[in-house]
Amino acid sequence: MIGIAIASKGIEDVCAREISELINSHAEIKEGFVKFSFNKFEDLCELCFRTQSAEKVLYLLAESSFSDGNLIEKVEETIKKIDFSFLKNDLHLALKSYRKNIL
């Protein structure tokens, strides 16, 4: 499973080191966030509770590129590939997308 920790620009390396120390996971440093793997949701919860460098900790459900073709069809294809089995019947889910490289 993949997680993302949103961090202030300039302290992504601190956030990556903190993730490594707290949940023993390698983190990939990006601009403004850190991408990392985790094995169980308890690790993600612990990171949410204990991190001091991340502004938000998120579970990455899917990742895709929509640079060509019909945007709606690409979004539908991506959503259909997501395994939602981790959700219980009485839980709710909020989805959020981010645009990159928009002029």
Structure description:
By secondary structure, the protein is of the alpha+beta class. The protein has a domain at 2-60: Alpha-Beta Plaits (2-Layer Sandwich). The chain contains three helices and four strands. It has a four-stranded antiparallel sheet with strand order 2-3-1-4, with helices on one face. The protein is globular. The protein starts with a strand and ends in a 23-residue tail after the last helix. 17% of the residues are buried.
Topology of this protein?
Blueprint: E1 2-7, H1 12-23, E2 27-29, E3 33-37, H2 41-50, E4 54-60, H3 71-80
Antiparallel strand pairs: 1-3, 1-4, 2-3
Helix % is: 25-40%
Reading the helices and strands in chain order gives EHEEHEH
What CATH calls the topology of the domain at 2-60 is Alpha-Beta Plaits
User: Would you tell me the structural class of the helices and strands?
Assistant: alpha+beta
What would you call the shape?
Answer: globular
Arrangement of strands in the largest sheet: 2-3-1-4
Keywords summarizing the entry:
103 residues, alpha+beta, Alpha-Beta Plaits
Compact overview of the structure:
By secondary structure, this protein is α+β, with helices and mostly antiparallel strands. The protein has 3 helices and 4 strands.
